[in-house]
Amino acid sequence: MPHALIILFGDQAAAWRAYDENLPPGAPRIALVDTYCDEKAEAILAAETLGQALHGVRLDTPASRRGSFEDIIREVRWELDLRGFGHVGIYVSGSLDEDNIPALRQAGADGFGVGTHLANAPTVDFALDVLDLDGRPAAKRGKFSGRKQVYRCPTCPTFLCRPRGEAAPSCPDCAQDMEPQLRRFIEGGRLVQPIPQACDSRTRAREQLSRVSLEAPTTG
Q1: What is the average per-residue pLDDT within 60-79?
Q2: What is the pLDDT of residues 118-135, one digit of tens each?
Q3: SS3 for 43-60, per residue?
C-alpha cells in the first residue's frame, strides 16, 4: 500500500476499506499507518476500521522525522495489544539495512521491507510523492505540499524552492533576480519544445563550473 493511495482518497479509513474490499480474499491486509498522523493513532484507527481482517500495519516513517524507530514500534505494539489487537503484526520499511534490522526486530517488528539497501552498490535515495490533487495541496507528513518552482541565481548560483505562481525571488546572497529552472518538455504525451542535446548540456555544465566550488567548507 503506497502513501499515494491514502492521499488520493484523502481519508485513511476510506483507503483501508477500499484496500480490503479489492484485495484477493487470501492476501494479508497490511495497512500503511503513517501518512497524516502519529503512527500510534493511525495504527489504532486501522485496527478499529478493519478489525480481525487486519493482518498487520506498516510503518514507513523516514529517519528524518521518526526519532527512535524502536520506541515507536514498542509504543504501537503496546497500544494495539492493550485494545485487543494482538493479532496485528508490525511491519517496517524505510532505509532499512543489516545494521538497524536487529534492533527493530528486538523492539517488536515482525517483518521488514528492504528496498534501497537490497544491493551493496552505491545508491541515490529519492522518492516520488503526490503533492497536489487537481490544484489542491496534498502531501504526507514530512513533505511540503503544493506545486513548486525551483529558482537559481545566475551568478552565485544559489537555489530556492517556492510555491508555483509566486513572483520570482531575488537571490538572498547577492540580490540578483533568480531564474526558474523547471521547464515543461512533454504535455499530453507530446513534445512541446526541443530536448537539449547532450553536448549542449555538457557545455552548459562546463560554463557553470567556474561559479561553484568543489572544496569542502572549512570550519573555524
Answers
A1: 82
A2: 777 787 777 788 999 988
A3: HHHHHHHHHHHEEEEEEC
Strand partners, 160: 151
The phi-psi region of residue 169 (left if phi > 0; otherwise alpha if psi is between -120 and 50; otherwise beta) is beta
The domain made up of 3-113 is a member of CATH 3.40.50.2300: no
d(CA 61, CA 38): 10
| Closest to 139 in 3D by CA, of 8, 39, 1 | 8
Residues near 203 by beta carbon (within 8 Å), at least 6 away in sequence = none
Most distant CA pair in the chain, distance: 64
139-158, pLDDT tens digit by residue?
A: 898 889 999 999 999 888 88
